[in-house]
Amino acid sequence: MRITVLTVPDCPNAPLMRERIAAALDGRPAQVEGEVEVEVVEVTEDAEAARRGMTGSPTMLLDGVDPFAAEGAPASLSCRLYRDDEGRLEGAPGITALRRALATAEVSRAGADADAGAGTECCEPDALDAIGRAGRGRRAPAERGLRAVHQAVLRHFAATGRAPGTAGLEPVAAAAGRAAGEVLAELGREDFLHLDRAGRIRAAYPFSAVETRHRVRLAGGVETWSMCAIDALGVSAMLGQDVTVSSSDPLDGRPVTVTFVGGTARWEPAEAVVFIGRREGAGPAALVCCEALNFFAGRASAERWARAHPEVKGEIIAQDRAVEIGVRTFGPLLAG
Question: Which pLDDT does position 64 carry in this prediction?
């Protein structure tokens, strides 16, 4: 991935932009294709600003695209300001916003390279590529009201801990000229959601409308459930807030807790791991994958569980890798 910072000479906010980009990248492994390249380019003429897509100093481009572009904003050499999550104006995007932008760019980049494998099932071990849905990602398309309704569902879960009813989604769907039930059905067919036979939302990855092994407590006190270990690890990045995940080892019931503070995860016990896999057969992730993606108190416990379940194909992964998969899969869902 190529990151370009466009700035006028001596821009007072350019150092802040570079500092926050470094913080957003801190601790991240190599990206989908090679390591991240960060380039700073000084722009002095209006024509060059227009050619490069610069709408104020500093402007950040990810592989040539401005993730914070405002529709209709003209090319400019003037000072550019950004709103943080609390609405305050600053000279650079917040670290959480930058992480989301990076994750979205990674999803788009990986999705473009995944067409050859698009026919594979979403949870085959070789398709657990940190993207989900065989590289197609879990961010619903913008057309036909799909993304708007999907995001409304996720925000309702985050605000209440529960799934919304169809009636509450009608105004969002109506903006796209559709009925909420129709949009939900399409989201269900594409496995962005999992619906019961009555069309009610049973899961909106990463959230579950019914109790699971994985409880998620949000910073404001809302409690909900996640579908699996990887889903739970993506909630903090998706919402941009501190989160506590409380789960248990499926073999012996020992508690496993992951606490996210400022985007950093703390694991208890320190030797905990995650098993990722899938059961035999085809179907949505809720049925063939989620029960096979769990926290374990240690590697030995995960190995014993895997030996006892030969019908599950998968592997044991370390904490950093598990968090990275969760962030890259769910971090972009509420962006744009």
Answer: 81
Strands 243-248 and 37-42: unpaired
The two three-digit tokens of residue 278, written as one number: 């899938």
Distances, alpha carbon 99 to alpha carbons 91, 171, 315, 330, in Å: 17, 30, 27, 12
What pTM does this model have?
0.62
- Burial readout 217-233 (b: 16 or more C-beta within 10 A, e: otherwise): bbeeeeebbbbbbbbbb
Token representation of residue 11:
């821009």
Average confidence (pLDDT) over 56-84: 88
Could you report the per-residue pLDDT of 238-281, keeping only the tens digit for each? Answer: 999 999 999 999 999 999 999 999 989 999 999 999 999 877 65
Which residues, other chains included, contact 266 with Cβ-Cβ below 8 Å and sequence gap of 6+?
258, 259, 260
> Average per-residue pLDDT in the chain?
85
Nearest Cα to Cα of residue 133 among 106, 107, 99, 155: 107
Residue 132's pLDDT band (cuts 50, 70, 90): low
Per residue in 251-279, is it b (16+ CB within 10 Å) or e — as a string? Answer: beebebbbbbeebebebeeeebbbbbbbb
Let me know: does 62 contact 69? Beta carbons within 8 Å. Answer: no
